[in-house]
């Protein structure tokens, strides 16, 4: 998978700034401000929209004070997102407002770690190998891919009731197998 150009550019600026390049550091902070303003604006209700700039400044200050904690071997945008997310959560707590932000809104700023996905897929496949293939597919379609029971049942030429029973029995078998209790 090709690296995200924004991740690459921001990471290069961060690494240069950690190595003492003041111009790269100024450029990094300016670029981060451009990314953080829309990030916070999308998350704030209209009543709190004026707080976006305060959150940007708080986040930039946190980045400045914690820049030496950045692990050069990890994606920069993941580290950035963690700081921005914590600043936003702190703001929500201070304002006593409910957080209702769709997760997909984080996509433009989040780094993607393919290793974690590959390990999770391998582990999931290993777990689902403990039930019959059809049951495994029904569980995957409904519980992981988000398909309805009707859609999963139709894909296997089954009734919804039969699919529900198969899913229930498969999950029960997996729970018995992996729960660590009596088998």
UniProtKB/TrEMBL annotation:
One GO biological process term: DNA-templated transcription initiation
Residues making up the signal peptide according to the UniProt record: none
Protein name: RNA polymerase sigma-70 factor, ECF subfamily
Keyword DNA damage: no
Keyword check for Transcription regulation: yes
Domain annotation RNA polymerase sigma factor 70 region 4 type: ranges: 122-174
Keyword line: DNA-binding, Sigma factor, Transcription, Transcription regulation
Family indicated by similarity: Belongs to the sigma-70 factor family. ECF subfamily.
Domain called RNA polymerase sigma-70 region: residue spans: 42-96
Gene3D superfamilies: 1.10.1740.10, Winged helix-like DNA-binding domain superfamily/Winged helix DNA-binding domain
NCBIfam families named among the record's database cross-references: PRK12539.1, sigma70-ECF
GO molecular function annotation: DNA binding; sigma factor activity
Coiled-coil stretches noted in the UniProt entry, renumbered to this chain: none
The species this protein was found in: Devosia psychrophila
